[in-house]
Amino acid sequence: MKVLIASFMIFSSSLVYADILLEDDFSDGNADGWSAWTSGYGANAQYNVIDQEYVLSNSGSGWIPAAAHNGDQGGIMSTPDYSIVAQITPVNCFRAGILARGYIPTFTGYLLVIIPSQNTFGISKLTSAGPEMITSVTMPLSFSETYWVRFELAGTAISGKIWQGAVDDEPSQWQLNCTNSLYSGPGRMGAFCCNFGNDEKALLTVKYDNISVFGTGNTLDQITWASIKQTI
After folding, report:
1. Is domain 15-228 classified as CATH 2.60.120.560?
2. What are the residues facing 159 on neighbouring strands?
3. CA 24 to chain centre
4. In this structure, what are the phi and psi dihedrals at residue 85, rounded to the nearest 5 degrees?
5. Neighbours of 73 (CB within 10 A)
6. What is the mean pLDDT of each run of 10 residues along the chain (232 residues)?
7. Does a cis peptide bond (omega within 30 degrees of 0) precede residue 105?
8. CA dist list (Å): 66 to 13, 181, 207
């Protein structure tokens, strides 16, 4: 795992400062620093770094989840306002997402979610009853395709983007925008995914890669992860 706290000055039309809080591309072959959910519903979940990707998996009947979270200060985020960029490949799942201001298994925080079976991209809040959708859009989404996502929180404002291709193909506009004040603490960021099975065994497999988290300050102009990524 790679963790970095530093300040970078990016020159564009104006000078923008971005504090990189945490990054991991799993190129070291491990997921050190990530806290995996291995109790209760997550007891059968598996967490492996395969081909430099963090693979979350589970199998069984009923609700089968997997989640792992992290933070730049001993597993906790140092600020409640941060922006997460990551790659997600939903192989087998109902929901594949990114967690922010959260903690599992107490089910707190916000989720940026991809639901391929419903062609849905959305923002949910986690509660004891499970995820509750706050806002969503319909778009073509496919299993086994790799997507870039950005999940940003600044005060009560929560935003999301999704795209394919290179990281610097990031769209300039948000596809999702909402406000919510349920969770205001830094919490933890991470990965959250799940699937459902009836009488037959269901499979859950979601791949995560190139995760980068940085502070947003008061505002965040469009700066791609590629602009601030450094090899450590």
Report:
1. yes
2. 152, 177
3. 12
4. -120, 135
5. 13
6. 41 44 95 96 96 96 95 94 97 97 96 98 94 97 98 97 96 97 97 87 94 74 38 32
7. yes
8. 42, 26, 11
